Amino acid sequence: MLLALMTDLHANREAVSACLAHAQQQNVSRYVFLGDLIGYGADPGWVLQTVMDHVTQGSWAIMGNHDIAVLQEDRQNMNPVARQVVEWTRDQLNTDQLDFIRKLPYRIEWQDLLFVHANAWAPDKWEYIDGVMEAMRSMHATRAAITFCGHVHLPTLYHMTLTGKTGEFLPTPENSIPLSKQRRWLVIPGSAGQPRDGNPAACYATFDTETQDLTYFRVPYDHEAAAKKILDAGLPAALASRLLTGN
């Protein structure tokens, strides 16, 4: 089975549309949306409904911190920009979409794979995997051979040997990487909706459960149109600028 791993969609219709179209060309069998479906972008309703439609067809979706934020009434601990976006986003969603968010799981385990948004040791606490130490902690927290997660908007691959030695690898797009069963792996596909590595092209990855091959992709999209929508919606200009620069 060929899985498409997409995370941190962040209500970016143009990026999500481009990634879905690209994945369809790869003959993907199932989509896995690793959280933060909404937040930052100007099309939360469309993106969330698109994910909902895919879930009804057998795909999976995970809870992210931006997703759960729209359900929380107390937002005093948020910075003003984040609070503005969350409040605006909630007003764009209907009752069915809010109910869908409420039912999102924090983790899904399937065969020897684990899907989470932030990490394996505390999926609902939203701590980041910023380097090798955090990746090691996450891999030690699960029996799964391969963990797929988001939250960090940079495409990265971590691996751990049977003796516990852990390393970091920066993947090259479109180069297939065989994930040896002699190691544990932690896969961060990078953000589909808000890349932060200096490249505005959307990120996602595919994984073949039969061959164990992992492939990262960068998909160009109309980021200028997505940025203009953010400005037109009255959302913070910094969010539009981020799409233009990829930072």
Automatic annotation (TrEMBL):
Pfam families: Metallophos_2. Residues 1-211 form the Calcineurin-like phosphoesterase domain. This is Metallophosphoesterase family protein. Belongs to the metallophosphoesterase superfamily. YfcE family. GO terms for cellular component: cytoplasm. GO terms for molecular function: phosphatase activity. InterPro entries: Ap4A_hydrolase, Calcineurin-like_PHP_lpxH, Metallo-depent_PP-like, Pesterase_MJ0912.
